[in-house]
Amino acid sequence: MIAGASVTLVDSAGREVPLDTDEHGIFQFKGIAPGQYALRINAPGFASEEKRGLVVTAGSPLVCDVRLKVAIQKEKVTVTAQSSLNTDPDNNKSALVLKGKDLEALPDDPDDLQATLQALAGPAAGPTGGQLYIDGFTASQRMPPKQAIREIFINQNPFSAEHDKVGFGRIEIFTKPGTDTLHGNALFLFNDASLNSRNPFADNRPPNQTRMYNLTASGPVIPKRATVLLSMFRKELDDSAIVHSTILDSSLQAVPLNTAVGAPKRFTDLAPRFDYLINKTNTFSLRYTFDRVSLQKEGVGGFSLPSQAYSLSTSQQVLQGVDTAVLSPRAVNELRFQFARERRTRTAASGSPSIAILDAFNGGGSPIGVERFTSSRWELQDNLTTLRGRHTFKFGARLRGVQLNDVSPTNFSGTYTFDGGLAPALDPENHLITSPDGSPVLIQISSIERYRRTLLFQQQGLSSAEIAALGGGPAQFSIAAGNPSAGIRQIDFGGYAQDDWRLRSNFTLSFGLRYENQTNIGSSLNFAPRLAFAWTPSKVSGQPKTVIRGGAGVFYDRFSESLSLQAHRFDGSREVQFIATDPRLLALFPAIPSLAMLESLGSASARWQVAPDLTAPYSIQSSISIERQLPRNFVLSATYLNTRGLHNLRARNINAPEIGAAQADIASSPLAQLNPFLVPPSGGPASPERRQVPRPFLAAGDIYQYESSGVFNQNQLIASGSNRLNKTFTLFAVYALGRAYSNTDGASSFPANQHDLSSEYGRAAYDIRHRFFAGGTISVRWGISLNPLIAILSGAPFNITTGIDSNGDSLFTDRPAFGASLAGPAVRVTQYGTFDLLPSPGDKIIPRNFGTGPAFFSANLRVSKTFNLGSAHKGSSAQGGAGSAPPPAARSAVPGAAHETRPYKLTISIYGSNIFNRTNAAQPIGNLSSPLFGQSIATQMFGSSAGGGAAANRNISLLVQFSF
Q1: Which domains does the chain have, with CATH numbers?
Q2: pTM of the model
Q3: CA-CA distances (angstroms) from residue 544 to 2, 417, 635, 859?
């Protein structure tokens, strides 16, 4: 007896009535008018069955027993009618299901496809974002080509204990199996600069072109027992990196540099999949993926000049095995194993020291040197599903392991950093301007102006003390030394139990418990309970029209192995990181001080560590939703979602100077504000000495610590709808109204004041208030198909900083205070308000992420025409669809009426991204000491075509696809 089978009754006029079998495999249609009907039955793992010529007479029930045959796969994955509302936990209509023709609206490039799906999933997963699964595994490989994807589920069954991450924001991708007859698909995409609009942030337009190839072929290996599917993908992208910065010309004048630099990229993927029917109750699937990536001129773009280029080469191999066993008519077990190995090499084009002119330009060589990285990951899962009366029990466990080995001589050549701040005013001849009493007049200067003064006065032969007194000189020098090799191992475990209890035919209660644990941190009591319900208050003609769902659960995040590696590398002994602000060392610019000199002058090394009391971050997520079936196949849902995050990760310099009293002590000296940590010279220019500011750990330097002291709170209202009006029109749309506040934006997020976190709670970086997405399929005349995809987002917040390290913590995260007046050398008036860049103790500091960036609008459109070729023969029709549908296991083929088909199809498409050529500017620069403060220096794209890459604003790609 097969529970949850999809049964559809079709009358002589073609009208359909769908429902699902109950836990005993029974289905019943009530109130059926006399007449002739057809019955279609689909169930996971079984061949489709159709019975025709069923005659219903008045007053006499018709009993129909159906026996289904086990099948290894179906030739096509289809849904011919909108699935009915029910209380199945996997059938929530707030989920977005994409397959068939609705996949065609998405980008063909795998990287763009992933970015689009993450945008569609929404900001429902807190600071760490959602999670991507491919065939049930945590994604370790690149996104598979779209032509190899069977279906995509977003935000399905959000409170299932089977998953560790929050359900809202989860993306599940299922690839196609092989077929028992030979089928194939070949795609070629072409894009050239002549088809695109130019990037608005570049003054030039170098040649760029994209060529993308994809081939999939499937067929039988052993008739009726084994099939194979082979997918091959290649992308050749002659892209451009857009540099938008401010530099100095030969006469030391600040000038803008807006240029595009050629940056070729090559991607190759190979992915065979083998499916084998061991016996009538056991199926085995094996999938292997090989990826190779070669990128040139990486590290260039934005503020980074071409001299900072490096090359990147990666190769990855992933092996996945899945064994599905039907243990009994009421129990199914699925065993999964995955192993992934990656090798990555990054090579800097130049080994010269780096120069960072904050938010003006980054010059010199790339700081990465020559990096060699290797990772090995494995994952083992076992999931058991069993039926007991009205209960569906699920039990399972997942064990994952990772080993990282990294040789990374990052910043072994050293980096000088220049910031902005107060400095003496200079006349056009670069002479000091003084007030009537003879003291220098102070003004606020940018980072590029401080760099200009340094070079200018060095050329004039001034001493380092004189240059510093005139507002020149770097603010910081950093360099790393020691053993660049580091490695880490990490294992995590997750086990769960789940019960979906159908108390009544219209009410299902789901409750479960998950347990999480991992090595490298001491947090072990990570129990995550889950609870959800679904209730249909009434039915019309035996079918529910409204479903109310609710749920709540605890979801844990893992402490990433990359963070453990960082703490292991810079533990104070293996690799040493010096961050120096001593004027005697900074005076050596542009020469690089030796390590012996750094040590002899008492430069303390910086190190990283994991807080001893670090606890695994977790979120408490709850929601309530209502789903409604409307006439003409419209299905609408509205969901209120609340998420509260606790023990979120942040970074903090726990040994930063305690400068409250020190700042008040030196505030009376205007010249001291050029650098609050230098004793102001008495009399003429002299070599200033370092002010001794107390630290919590006096004998140590900077100590950067990962800790779990962050929180976030998020509320969202999500409305979604889907419609399959007829075979020529489908539509899905999602709107989200959200509000998110936090005091950290992730593990690498530092506060402005390392010893006072009270001012950190503010808008989260992912607090985008309005999000709207819509897409679908429209078939028009002459067999032309239109696939639009529209995205509208309000502006995201960004942080506003002073660009000055005023508190000596070696970080440039200081935020300004609200300006009390328009006067003062450190006051700056901007479109975002009036700010004081050197606030006094007690001044009100502006909130974190105070600024709001520009809104976003993009419309993508695919126009396709399919030509049927070859000799016609009798066949069965099958069409794909989108919208809220049953879970992946319930997908099957639905044969339609026999009709004339042709064995070959040629599809010609034009795909345009951002077809209205709107300039969607990226986040503005938030550094008040930057000459580009408040300006955007790049575009942001949503689901861009593989065509223009970063080089174009509007991309138009041509696609040719042949299938048989």
Answers
A1: 1-71 (2.60.40.1120), 97-412+486-566+614-652+706-713+721-801+851-873+895-963 (2.40.170.20)
A2: 0.81
A3: 21, 65, 12, 36
